[in-house]
Inverse folding.
């Protein structure tokens, strides 16, 4: 079964760092762009970052630009999100999502990993 | 950034009702629009892409229409499993943006 499995969430203090991972299985990972999308408790969906299929291009929401870095490793079919200088407003469930092409709808989502930023 | 405005933010309906949700983009996005359904505690699931193309496996009671700036998601005959939140999303340009969501509740 095609799937995405996130890990790496947890409790972190304001100003701290965390790295999320998303393991992809049963599809050709290197053929598709990937994104991170988050959802604060009780709120709507917010796109965070995307990376092209080759890894050469990356895009960020203004709210995380300069603090978060997206990357991918096609040798082990894994997507990453390095999150630095974390703030309380970064508290959310973080989903990884597979693009159906290079800049298309998201046709596969992981189950999400919770990130809580609090002292 | 392209702003996506969804309405209503919530609605109450009964099984069998016809439900319409609208989404307006702040600029022309052609047909680069998707609709997602999300149930509590679960990841979103794509229903419609390209504004009107039904994702494989999604029931035909879901239809999408529109292009440019104005879009609509219609559920023709609401079923019990359709009570959920719905989001539109544009993928015309970065940053990608979602509408604020519509929660469909049982009347």
């Amino acid at each position: 079964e095609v799937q995405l499995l996130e890990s790496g969430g947890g409790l972190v203090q304001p100003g701290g760092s965390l790295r999320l991972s998303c393991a992809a299985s049963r599809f050709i990972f290197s053929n598709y762009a990937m994104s991170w999308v988050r959802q604060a408790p009780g709120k709507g969906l917010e796109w965070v970052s995307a990376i092209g299929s080759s890894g050469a291009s990356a895009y960020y929401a203004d709210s995380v630009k300069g603090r978060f870095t997206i990357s991918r490793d096609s040798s082990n079919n894994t997507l990453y999100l390095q999150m630095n200088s974390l703030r309380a407003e970064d508290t959310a469930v973080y989903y990884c999502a597979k693009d159906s092409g290079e800049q298309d709808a998201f046709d596969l989502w992981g189950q999400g990993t919770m990130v809580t930023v609090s002292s | 950034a392209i702003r996506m405005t969804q309405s209503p933010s919530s609605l109450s309906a009964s099984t069998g009702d016809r439900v319409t949700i609208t989404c307006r983009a702040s600029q022309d996005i052609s047909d680069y629009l998707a609709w997602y359904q999300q149930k509590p505690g679960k990841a979103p699931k794509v229903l419609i892409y390209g504004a009107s193309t039904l994702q494989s496996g999604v029931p035909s009671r879901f239809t999408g229409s529109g292009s440019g700036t104005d879009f609509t998601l219609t559920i023709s005959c609401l079923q019990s499993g359709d009570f959920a939140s719905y989001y539109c999303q544009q993928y015309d340009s970065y940053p990608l943006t979602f509408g604020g969501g519509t929660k469909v509740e049982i009347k």
